[in-house]
Amino acid sequence: MKKKITDYDIKNKKVIIRCDLNVPIKDGIIQDDTRIRASLETINYCLDNGASVIILSHLGKVKSDEDKKKNSLYPVCVRLSELLGREVLFSHDTRSDNLTRMCNNLKIGDVLLIENTRFEDLNGNKESGCDLDLAKYWASLGDLFINDAYGTCHRAHASNVGISKYLESGLGFLVINEVSKLDNIINEDTHPYVVIMGGAKVVDKIKVIENLVSKCDKLLIGGGMAYTFLKALDYNVGNSLVDTESIDFCKRMLDSYQDKIVLPVDSVVSESLDSDKCLEKDINKFNDLDMGLDIGSKTIELFKDNLKDAKRVIMNGPMGVFENKLYENGTREILEYLAKNNIKTLIGGGDSVSSVNKFNLANSFYHVSTGGGATLEYLEGKILPGIGAISDE
Q1: What's the pLDDT tens digit per position in 154-174?
Q2: I need a labelling partner for 225 at 20 to 30 A (CA). Which of 16, 212, 338, 391 fits?
Q3: Which alpha helices (H) appear in 155-311, and where do they start and end?
């Protein structure tokens, strides 16, 4: 077991918290502050228990000086000040004598946000490459390190794994909650246990499928990845998305788990994603120009039939191109069915979360994971580097 923030006496300590404040910003305006709000519990715990707080986070990708201009965390600093109801200090430097002085001068109850950790990637990928000199410098700024950035736990960066090498460390409340909910639904011995997989490419989810298919009772496959499985069964899928490098894998899965894997029997098709014309077709009626963009009404009912007695469900990936109103029905119907029937469901990150938010269902499930890649790797059965590096109890 890994140490948690509550395992430490943090009074009079400078606590370094790695948060995930990677929020969408347009023209300097934050479009969605969900991730900032998600960090408040751990920050406020430190403040309520007599600590000062130093926050590290990344924002976007930084490959050029131009990226630095649009990926500054300063707008986040302003919003964080509003949410905390107190001034949040801001360091424009990621490493400097001035930053060191600012940290040395922090008083109990002070909060300091350091500029985007990925600014250090312009200096030889020192953040994403887990440069230990950089990690040692950041560790020198505080007394304790808390990793509360679940969304980056699958990355071994200087600001999470690196700092953990030089300071006592623990998990923050956001990471604790994510891991607890994931472990609960994965390890619970209730059945039927159904996994719903969607999204685009099979190759991105091979390890997840391999890890879960042997444990679940049914694996329902929708989204773009369904057409690779159908292609493996020699169906004509027209111009639908096919992940050709994964066809052999799909054949192997279908041979081994034909009693578990449930594929679409019909689709909403069009000749172009940009077209406003679409229709439903059975899977065996595709022509060479058809592009499958959502599961059809027969598949929706088939999937619901496989879900009606489910005791727990993991859903990762949408059933179609839900961003387009013409192709949102499959994703919306399945999500609403899970919510309406109070089926214990974990929604697994990325586009799945976007679809849940689009249909205003965020509070309808057992858990909606904040991590995309991190949740996928956890579902693969991997130990996430950002968690593995934390001090043991």
Answers
A1: 999 999 999 999 999 999 999
A2: 338
A3: 163-164, 173-187, 206-213, 225-232, 247-256, 297-307
